[in-house]
Each structure stands twice: as structure tokens, then as C-alpha cells.
């Protein structure tokens, strides 16, 4: 151990300048974060975007520094050739590897943690947030290190390292382009398959890199290591391009948690229709099956969140269609929690509005029906979607009810009201590390009242929507939160939506700037036959903030022998 | 006991045998010079011995351990200096020694200080700012200060100017007085090696041409010149041990590679009774050249 630390000390001394530069890049990002975090009001959108760009440059610079430093660290005691100083010294290859990994841990995890600690503390992070953020840093840095390591141990010089990287990038691009060119007219790859590919390819990469690095440090035999690298590369690329099975539910395997809380929750199928698939989802005409469920027995005030699902259809002629998925094809529409918590009763639809909608539909020659919740205890609706079903199946499903099976995982969320504040500039809505401040509010000609908000919270609590849009496939624990605009005098609630939403992640803190819109309350003027704005519609408006803490995880299975498909589905 | 033993050690690079079926023995306490022209396989042999390369066939044992299994325990007893070795050039000499010290439980700080003075190394200068010779001396210091049982020097004199070379050898000789070690030195600088080695192994084209003690070798080789003075000769067919034989007028010159003070001179007299015979000892360098020429001549003959 002493020798390992001795080598670590040597490497830290050797690379103190690039390490200091790395710390400076981190510190520069923190300065940017401080600027955003303590801004007096919401920044101009352009300024925010520009700062986001700088922060992204900082993140890219961090990745580049990791890529360069990992190579330099490995090349300092190279495993290639016969000239390295350590090879004839009383230190084993595995001890040297251990020393390098300790250095990587110190430089890319401990150092950022130390640099960012004051930033986290002033952002209200607790021990748990700090621990999870360090874990997040370790995972992200670890991913870059895992990608850099095989190239570093297989090359003895930086020039060869860059050349090897370039060759791999070019080879990957060429194979990818060739694959795309051959599949231009094919259907889009389902999200669950993409997630499966990513999961399996990641596992292959991690195992192969570990095997390659250990092998190289133990034996220093280049050719077997290169053969292992090429094989792993080919397997990974093949998985990324050609894997066809959706194991996303298996990969996201969960076990039930707190089953006593969810014992009474049941799923009831409500309506199934076959509809045109939106053109953005497919490159050729296709149809999708939409099945709506309601959940009964949800404890008062709690909310449900769908996690993953498996659906299967068995038509009378024996054709089976299965769908495994975590996003797009399984979404939830939640209502009720906010009403309950805020004590604002759920409002029945405005009869004038119902009449207006019906008349408008009639004028267009279409039919419009308000699907009102049939039971008062229905609080949650879910929609299971099976996209890209074969065209010939559409007609059969519409005329002959098929057997249907649904197997899904859910989370029960317990909302907590953090604060409800009047719309005054600078009004804080802080809750530990979940900070928010109300900015300006102004009248927007088209969208009513606009309220700007600046929020900050640990990045580990955010969804990670950037990875193939997999908003359900989060890698870190999260505590979702909700913001609602409330008008108690009129009994109306509006969730703060994702419009004008801007987010920037700086050293484990997500800084969000968004604008919430609250549409003016209107009534139908029978004399002028127009919608008229209520004069005092914005009086007494407040902003309420919740957190939604997952308290239970459960699974539900549903089997229907003959599921009727609504023939009136839009075409 | 032999510190180094190889048996049919072979290393092939493509179609070329860099080392071919080498059977080499280095007894404990000896200083063995591994000689040979450029490309003879000296460095490859040392790399095989140090587990820097793996043999294609055959095996080597170093300090009683298979060379392929040399590990930290053995390297703690081996001092290796090579002109090809990459040194941490960003360190000062002192930092370099500080870095090396914890690797060796037997590190002798007094010896380190003494060698530092003897080799006239500037302790606070970075290795990259040292000349090649000075850097080699620093490497030598780091390889000797823990009193290794085996010192392996691969071409340590290459590119050194005469003064530094002298200092380097002087340092080696002084250090050798401080410890009981076995040394293997590869070089094509024969004069320097001659002062150090008590045993010589000659490699050529990857093959071992000879492996014996320096004394025996120097005793065995003689340059012989016979002035016939017009008298009769019965030289007849020259023995195979006579190398580079040439005749110019009344003079016959050759190198006897199997000379013995008693037997050889009576043989010369028997063949040239009236000739004046001059027998001169040879330097290691001359022997080396003679053997190299003989090898090439053999190779040419075989090719023809």
C-alpha cells in the first residue's frame, strides 16, 4: 500500500500543472454558477443561453482534460514496449494499476468534490445530496475514464493515443453511416430497444475494459490485448446497430417496496383505440394502439408515476404482438394530488366551455365528447401505447377484440407542500437544497400572466432527459417536484409547464429559469357571443411548490380476454 | 551457483532469429561481458533475461527464477541500467533517488551519498537537463545504492565521451568494491569492458560464439608471426584454430585461437624449423575482431 501511495504522490507531483488547470476549469464553472444563482432577477434569455454555452464549453473542457490526463498518467508508466522505468523495478503491474486508479479517483472525484464543496454548502446541500452528487461526478468521470483507458494502455505515446482514438471514431462513423444508409426506409428503432442496446453495450464495454486493462498491466502482452479490444469494439458496435430485443423492463428490474401502502390500488382499462401514429415518430405510415387505464384505490392526496411496462396482444388468429417499454409508450396523467393538498376542490368543466367545444366540433363536421372521470375516486390515468403496429393488424384489431395483457411497474409518490407564496418579486420558495425565487411577473398578450422563476436544486434530483429522450430511465434517485399557480378565489390550479424552460447544470447544481403562464379566467358572454376576461382574474394568485417523494414501488398485472377497440379512434 | 542460466533461449522477430538457442551461464560473483557487433542480439538477450520480452522458445533462469516469472521480489535484488530505459526526466537527481528509495528495503543511504560524490552528480539538477552520460550515471547510482545481487548493464557506455566513460567505469569499479555482486554488461566497447569483465560471452547474429573467462580467453589467443628466412616450411594444412592466416613473401601471420605456451610453440617449430617465431598476446578487442571476421568468413563459405 505504501508503494502504491508513493507512486500516487509521484504522479500527482508530475501532473500538478494539468491538475491545477482542471481545478481552475471547475472553479470557472462555479463562478458562472454563482453568477446565475445570485442574479438579482431572471436573466435575459440570450444571456442565459450564452452562459449555458460557456458552461457546456467548461464541461467539454473537463472531459478533454480527463481524456488527456488519463493518457498522460498511463503513459508516464507505459505498459507498452520495453523501455518503461517501472518494468524492471520491484513493483507489480497490478500495484501500478492500483496506483493509477487511486490517482484517477483523487483527481477526478476527490478534487472536484473539494473544489465544489463550498458551492454545494451554500446551495443548501445536505450530506445525502453531497454523497449523491459525488457519486454522480464519479459516474460521469468514470464513463470518460473507461472510454480513455483502453486507448491509453494500448498506446505508448500521446500521438499514438490520438491516432487510435481518431481511427476508432472514423471506423465507428463509417460503420454507422453504412448502417443508416441501408436502413433509411426502415421503421424507427423503439425506445426500449435503444435503452436495451445502451445497457448491454455499456456492460460489455465495462467488462471488456476491465479485462483489457488488468490483462495489460499483468502481462504487458500487446497483441492479445489488442485482439480483446478489437473484439469488444466489434461486439459493442454490433449491439448498438443490430440488437433487436427489448429488455428494458428486465434491465430496470425493481422489487416491490412498501407493498402495504399500495395493496388497494387496482388498474381498470377504460378505452382502447387504434390511431394514426404521429408522423414525427415514424418514417412510414403506421398505427398505434392507445389503451387508457385508470388507477383506483390510490391513497388520498398521493400520486402515481409509471415506471415501465410490458404489453402483449393476442389476436384470434394467433398473431402475438409484444411491447416492452419505459418511455413514450407508457405515460401517466396525474391529477388530484395538488387539489387535495391545496384544499382547492377539483373544478367541473365550465358548461359554457363544453357547449362551445361541442358547437365548434359540429361546425367542423366532427364529433366531440368530454370524457369525464366516471368515478370520483379516479385520480390517475395512464396511457399505454403500442406504436408501429403492422397495418394489416389494424383492421383485425378494430373488428375482432384481442386478448390483452399488461404488466407494469409504478411508484407511489407522496406530495408535500413546501410553500405557497404570493407573486412578489424575490419571494423565496426554498426548501433545503431545493431553492426557488419568484422573479418578475408581467402580462403576456397571448398567454396571460407570465411569471418568471429561478430555481436551483441538486442535479441528481433531475430527470435526465437528454439520453435518447429517456425521461423515465433516470440513473440517479430523484425527488420530482411540482410548481402550481393557484387562484383560490376562483378555485383554479395551473401546473407550471415546461414552456420557456431553461436549465443549466453547474457542478452538481441544476439552475433552472422558467416562465409560468396563467391564462386569464374567461366567461362566455351570451349577448356578445364572445369570451370575456374576468376583470379581477389575477387577484390573489399564488405560487405553490411541492415535492413528490417516492414512498412505494409496486407492480400490477392486468389481463383482459377480449379488449374492445374503440372504432371511433381518429384516423 | 549460477545467477543467470539460459537453455536454448530463442527469440524470433518475424522470420529473423534475434537470439538463437542461447546457452549462457553467468556464475555468481562474476562480471560477465556480453560482447557482439551491432545487431548481435545482446540487448534482446538482456530484455529476455529481464522479462521485458518473452522467449519464443527455450528458457532463462535469473536468480534461480524463470525469467518469465520475475517479479517485485526478484527485481528488488537486480540493478538494471540501459541506454534504452526511459528515466523520469522531469525529476531532479535528488527527487529521482527519493522516488527509487522506497522500492528497495536494502537501500544504503551511505552508499548513495558516497556514489553521488564519486559520480559527481548535481543533485538539484533535473534529469532532462543532464547530459546523456550524467543521466546514465544517475541511473547507475539508483541501480547500485541498494546493493543488488545482480547488476545488468545494457550498453552503458554508448555515446559517452571518454571522460564520462572513465568516470562511469571508475564508479562501477569503486562500487564493486563495496558489494559482492554479479554483473552482466553488454557492450561493443571492448576496451572498457576488458577492465571490468572476468568473463566474456560473444554473441554474433543471435548465436553464442564463446562463453569463457577473460583470463582463459586472453591466454588462448595469440598473434603469431613466422619469418621463414627462405628456409623450408612444412606448414601443411593449417589447424582450424589458426585464424586469418596470410603469407607475404617469407612471412606467415596468423592468429592462434587455441594457444598453449608449451604445446603451440613446439608445434610452430616443428612446422617451420628454421623460422623465427614471434608470439604476441592479443587484446580483447583484437580477439573480438578476429572472431567476428572468422564468423563472417564461415557464413560466406556456407553461402557459397
Order of helices and strands of chain A: HHHHHHHHHHEEEEEHHEHEEEEEEEEEE
Which structural class matches the secondary elements of chain B? alpha/beta
Secondary structure: number of strands of chain B: 15
How do the strands of the widest beta sheet of chain A line up side by side? 4-3-7-16-10-11
Structural class of chain A: alpha+beta
Percent in helix of chain A: 40-55%
Question: What average pLDDT do the residues of chain A reach?
Answer: 79
Gyration radius over CA of chain A? 28 Å
List the chains of the largest interface with their residue counts. A-B, 19 and 24 residues
Question: What proportion of the residues of chain B form beta strands (DSSP E)?
Answer: 25-35%
Query: What are the segments of chain B in which pLDDT stays under 50 over at least 5 consecutive residues?
Result: none
**CA(first)-CA(last) distance of chain B:** 43 Å
Biggest sheet record of chain A:
6 strands, antiparallel
- Tally of individual helices of chain A: 13
Radius of gyration of chain B over all CA atoms, rounded: 22 Å
User: Residue-averaged pLDDT of chain B, rounded?
Assistant: 85
* N to C succession of SSEs of chain B: EEEEHEEHEHHHEHEHEEHEEEHEH
Q: What is the rounded distance between the termini of chain A?
A: 70 Å
Strand and helix map with partners:
The complex is a heterodimer of chains A (571) and B (304).
Chain A: H1 2-14, H2 16-37, H3 45-76, H4 93-122, H5 127-154, H6 158-182, H7 191-219, H8 222-242, H9 248-251, H10 259-262, E1 266-276, E2 287-296, E3 303-314, E4 320-325, E5 330-334, H11 337-342, H12 351-364, E6 380-389, H13 391-399, E7 402-422, E8 435-444, E9 448-458, E10 481-487, E11 492-495, E12 502-506, E13 509-518, E14 522-525, E15 530-533, E16 541-563
Antiparallel strand pairs in A: 1-2, 2-6, 3-4, 3-7, 5-6, 7-16, 8-9, 9-13, 10-11, 10-16, 12-13, 14-15
Helix pairs in contact in A: 1-4, 2-3, 2-4, 3-5, 4-5, 4-7, 5-7, 7-8
Chain B: E1 2-13, E2 16-22, E3 25-27, E4 31-35, H1 42-49, E5 57-62, E6 65-66, H2 72-75, E7 78-82, H3 93-100, H4 109-118, H5 132-144, E8 150-154, H6 162-178, E9 182-187, H7 190-196, E10 199-204, E11 207-213, H8 214-220, E12 222-227, E13 242-248, E14 251-256, H9 263-271, E15 276-281, H10 284-303
Parallel strand pairs in B: 4-9, 4-10, 7-8, 8-9
Antiparallel strand pairs in B: 1-2, 1-3, 1-5, 5-6, 10-11, 12-14, 12-15, 13-14
Helix pairs in contact in B: 4-5, 5-6
Amino acid at each position: 500500500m505504501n508503494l502504491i501511495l508513493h507512486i500516487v504522490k509521484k504522479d500527482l507531483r508530475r501532473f500538478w500543472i494539468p491538475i491545477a488547470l482542471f481545478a481552475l476549469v471547475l472553479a470557472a464553472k462555479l463562478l458562472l454558477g454563482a453568477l446565475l444563482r445570485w442574479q438579482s432577477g431572471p436573466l435575459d434569455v440570450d444571456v442565459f443561453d450564452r452562459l449555458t454555452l460557456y458552461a457546456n464549453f467548461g464541461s467539454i473542457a473537463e472531459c478533454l482534460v480527463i481524456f488527456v490526463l488519463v493518457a498522460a498518467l498511463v503513459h508516464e508508466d507505459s505498459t507498452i514496449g520495453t523501455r518503461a522505468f517501472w518494468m524492471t523495478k520491484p513493483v507489480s503491474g497490478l500495484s501500478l494499476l492500483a496506483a493509477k486508479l487511486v490517482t484517477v479517483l483523487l483527481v477526478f472525484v476527490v478534487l472536484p468534490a473539494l473544489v465544489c464543496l463550498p458551492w454545494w454548502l451554500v446551495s443548501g446541500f445536505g450530506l445525502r445530496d453531497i454523497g449523491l452528487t459525488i457519486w454522480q461526478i464519479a459516474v460521469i468521470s468514470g464513463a470518460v475514464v473507461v472510454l480513455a483507458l483502453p486507448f491509453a494502455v494500448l498506446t505508448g505515446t500521446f500521438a499514438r493515443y490520438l491516432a487510435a482514438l481518431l481511427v476508432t471514431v472514423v471506423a465507428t462513423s463509417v460503420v454507422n453511416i453504412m448502417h443508416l444508409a441501408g436502413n433509411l426506409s426502415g421503421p424507427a428503432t423503439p425506445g426500449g430497444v435503444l435503452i436495451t442496446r445502451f445497457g448491454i453495450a455499456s456492460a460489455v464495454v465495462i467488462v471488456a475494459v476491465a479485462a483489457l486493462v488488468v490483462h495489460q498491466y499483468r502481462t504487458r502482452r500487446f497483441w492479445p490485448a489488442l485482439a480483446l479490444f478489437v473484439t469488444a469494439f466489434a461486439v459493442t458496435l454490433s449491439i448498438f446497430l443490430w440488437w433487436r430485443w427489448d429488455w428494458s423492463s428486465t434491465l430496470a428490474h425493481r422489487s416491490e417496496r412498501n407493498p402495504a401502502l399500495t395493496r388497494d390500488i387496482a388498474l381498470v382499462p377504460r378505452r382502447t383505440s387504434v390511431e394514426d401514429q404521429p408522423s414525427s415518430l415514424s418514417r412510414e405510415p403506421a398505427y398505434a394502439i392507445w389503451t387508457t387505464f385508470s388507477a383506483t384505490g390510490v391513497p388520498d392526496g398521493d400520486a402515481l408515476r409509471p415506471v415501465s411496462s410490458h404489453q402483449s396482444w393476442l389476436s384470434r388468429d394467433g398473431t402475438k404482438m409484444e411491447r416492452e417499454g419505459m418511455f413514450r409508450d407508457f405515460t401517466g396523467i396525474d391529477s388530484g394530488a395538488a387539489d387535495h393538498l391545496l384544499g382547492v376542490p377539483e373544478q367541473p368543466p365550465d358548461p359554457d366551455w363544453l357547449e362551445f367545444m361541442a358547437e365548434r366540433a359540429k361546425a367542423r363536421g366532427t364529433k366531440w365528447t368530454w370524457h369525464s372521470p366516471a368515478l370520483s375516486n379516479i385520480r390517475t390515468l395512464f396511457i399505454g401505447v403500442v406504436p408501429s403496429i403492422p397495418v394489416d393488424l389494424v383492421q383485425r384489431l378494430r373488428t375482432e377484440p384481442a386478448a390483452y395483457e399488461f404488466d407494469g411497474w409504478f411508484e407511489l409518490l407522496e406530495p408535500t407542500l413546501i410553500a405557497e407564496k404570493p407573486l412578489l418579486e424575490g419571494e423565496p420558495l426554498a426548501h433545503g437544497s431545493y431553492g426557488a425565487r419568484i422573479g418578475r411577473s408581467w402580462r403576456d398578450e397571448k398567454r396571460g400572466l407570465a411569471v418568471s422563476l429561478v430555481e436551483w436544486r441538486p442535479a441528481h434530483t433531475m430527470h435526465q432527459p437528454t439520453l435518447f429522450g429517456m425521461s423515465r430511465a433516470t440513473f440517479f434517485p430523484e425527488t420530482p417536484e411540482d410548481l402550481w399557480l393557484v387562484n383560490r378565489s376562483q378555485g383554479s390550479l395551473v401546473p407550471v409547464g415546461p414552456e420557456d424552460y431553461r436549465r443549466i447544470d453547474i457542478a452538481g447544481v441544476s439552475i433552472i429559469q422558467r416562465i409560468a403562464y396563467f391564462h386569464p379566467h374567461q366567461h362566455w358572454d351570451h349577448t356578445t357571443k364572445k369570451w370575456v376576461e374576468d376583470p379581477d382574474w389575477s387577484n390573489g394568485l399564488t405560487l405553490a411548490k411541492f415535492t413528490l417523494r417516492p414512498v412505494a414501488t409496486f407492480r400490477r398485472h392486468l389481463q383482459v380476454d377480449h379488449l374492445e377497440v374503440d372504432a371511433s379512434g381518429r384516423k | 551457483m549460477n545467477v543467470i542460466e539460459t537453455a536454448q533461449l530463442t527469440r524470433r522477430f518475424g522470420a529473423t532469429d534475434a537470439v538463437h538457442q542461447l546457452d549462457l551461464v553467468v556464475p555468481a560473483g562474476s562480471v560477465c561481458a556480453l560482447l557482439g557487433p551491432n545487431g548481435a542480439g545482446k540487448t534482446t538477450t538482456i530484455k529476455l533475461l529481464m522479462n521485458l520480452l518473452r522467449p519464443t522458445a527455450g528458457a532463462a533462469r535469473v536468480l534461480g527464477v524463470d525469467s518469465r516469472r520475475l517479479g517485485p521480489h526478484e527485481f528488488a535484488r537486480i540493478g538494471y541500467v540501459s541506454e534504452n530505459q526511459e528515466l523520469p526526466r522531469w525529476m531532479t537527481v535528488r527527487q529521482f533517488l527519493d522516488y527509487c528509495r522506497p522500492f528497495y528495503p536494502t537501500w544504503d543511504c551511505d552508499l548513495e551519498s558516497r556514489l553521488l560524490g564519486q559520480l559527481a552528480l548535481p543533485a538539484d539538477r533535473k534529469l532532462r537537463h543532464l547530459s546523456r552520460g550524467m543521466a546514465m550515471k544517475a541511473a547507475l547510482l539508483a541501480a547500485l545504492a541498494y546493493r543488488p545481487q545482480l547488476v545488468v548493464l545494457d550498453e552503458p557506455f554508448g555515446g559517452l565521451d571518454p571522460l564520462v566513460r572513465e568516470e562511469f567505469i571508475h564508479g562501477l569499479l569503486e562500487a564493486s568494491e563495496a558489494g559482492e555482486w554479479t554483473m552482466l554488461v553488454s557492450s561493443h566497447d571492448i576496451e572498457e569492458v576488458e577492465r571490468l569483465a572476468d568473463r566474456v560471452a560473444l554473441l554474433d547474429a543471435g548465436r553464442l560464439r564463446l562463453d569463457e573467462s577473460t583470463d582463459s580467453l586472453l591466454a588462448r589467443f595469440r598473434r603469431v608471426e613466422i619469418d621463414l628466412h627462405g628456409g623450408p616450411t612444412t606448414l601443411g594444412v593449417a589447424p582450424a584454430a589458426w585464424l586469418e592466416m596470410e603469407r607475404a613473401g617469407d612471412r606467415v601471420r596468423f592468429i592462434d585461437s587455441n594457444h598453449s605456451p608449451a604445446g603451440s610453440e613446439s608445434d610452430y617449430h616443428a612446422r617451420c624449423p628454421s623460422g623465427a617465431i614471434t608470439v604476441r598476446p592479443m587484446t580483447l578487442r583484437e580477439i573480438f575482431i578476429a572472431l567476428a571476421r572468422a564468423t563472417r568468413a564461415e557464413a560466406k563459405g556456407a553461402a557459397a
